[in-house]
Amino acid sequence: MKSVRTPDERFANIIDWPYAPIYTDVSAGDGSTDTLRVAHYEAGPSDAATTVLLMHGEPSWSYLYRKMMAVHIAAGHRVIAPDLIGFGRSDKPMETSDYTYERHVAWMNEWLNKNNFTHLTLVCQDWGGLVGLRLATANVDRFDRIAIANTGLPLAGREPSAAFRAWQKYSQEVPDFAVGTLVNGGCLSTLSADEIAAYDAPFPDDTFKAAARIFPSLYPDGDDHPSNIANKIAWDVLRSWTKPFLTAFSDGDAITKGGNGVFEREVPGATGQAHTTIEGGGHFLQEDKGEEFAAVVNNFIAANP
């Protein structure tokens, strides 16, 4: 599997990002002996009772969580934020065919277990939820709580929103996949030029963008899709999940609007929790309302020790 690695100097002047990467090698998963490097960032006390695992989606990287990380650290929590393969400082296979939903799950599952993280509170949005919920349901003993925002876990027969289908089509047809501009378009606030540059930093040119380009097309359609089969197993786990489970969707995301309801109805651990609609947030509510979202998560942790 041919991959590229974003030069370190691309990250030298990232605004509001003091975190150094930690690297873990995982199997490429293509039947070869090749490995890929996953980057993650850690902060806060290593002996904290709670570790907040922040999972980003498409086409962002862990920089998305910078506003939240400071709030979690101030509350005494340890924070871990990984870059998915193809994003941030993680390695980037060059062919769109190198990426599948199941490979993303396998890469991050190997990363999780190699690092032996425990007492996790999963916080996830966008594809960070599609991947992160699979991690949690496959590694139940490692997770104490789950908080989701603007995400879902697809199943055959559950059609995604029209807004998602429009984004899926656009992502495959737009000539210039301008990542920073696309993230800005998913916010209700306006990112600064420096913030847009930070989202563009992992991608010096189009050879680095295979994951960003193909991710929307990895959505599993059809009863026999391997990920729908695997997600059905994950949903069986969620339907018996009694640990604390919170939804904190924003009010301004057409792509995932209403997606919180199925979790609140079907996950036992969601009963009685302080589910929240975060007002004034777009799809990337971490940008629009990051401090508020982090405070909701901190309160959730405090209420469910």
What is the structure about, briefly put?
The protein has 305 residues and is an alpha/beta fold. It is built from eleven helices and ten strands. Helix 1 (66-74) runs parallel beside helix 11 and helix 3 (127-138) packs across helix 8 (226-238).
Structural description of this entry:
- 35% of the residues lie in helices and 17% in strands.
- The chain contains 11 helices and 10 strands.
- The strands form 2 sheets. It has an 8-stranded mixed beta sheet with strand order 2-3-5-4-7-8-9-10, with helices on both faces. It has a two-stranded antiparallel ribbon with strand order 1-6.
- Strand 9, helix 9 and strand 10 form a beta-alpha-beta unit.
- It is globular.
- The chain starts with a strand and ends with a helix.
- The model has no long low-confidence stretch (mean pLDDT 97).
Core attributes:
single chain; 305 residues; alpha/beta; Rossmann fold; 8-stranded mixed β-sheet; two-stranded antiparallel ribbon; 17% strand
Name given to the CATH homologous superfamily: Alpha/Beta hydrolase fold, catalytic domain
The first-level CATH class is given as: Alpha Beta
What overall geometry do the principal axes of the alpha carbons give? globular
Instruction: Write the element-wise H/E pattern from the N-terminal end onward.
Output: EEEEHEEHEHEHHHHHEHEHH
CATH architecture name: 3-Layer(aba) Sandwich
Could you say how many structural domains there are in total? 1
Q: Record the strand order, biggest sheet.
A: 2-3-5-4-7-8-9-10
Distance between the termini: 44 Å
Query: How confident is the prediction overall: mean pLDDT?
Result: 97
Portion in helices = 25-40%
Low-confidence stretches: none
Q: Count every beta strand, where a strand is a DSSP E run of 2 or more residues.
A: 10
The helix-and-strand class reads alpha/beta
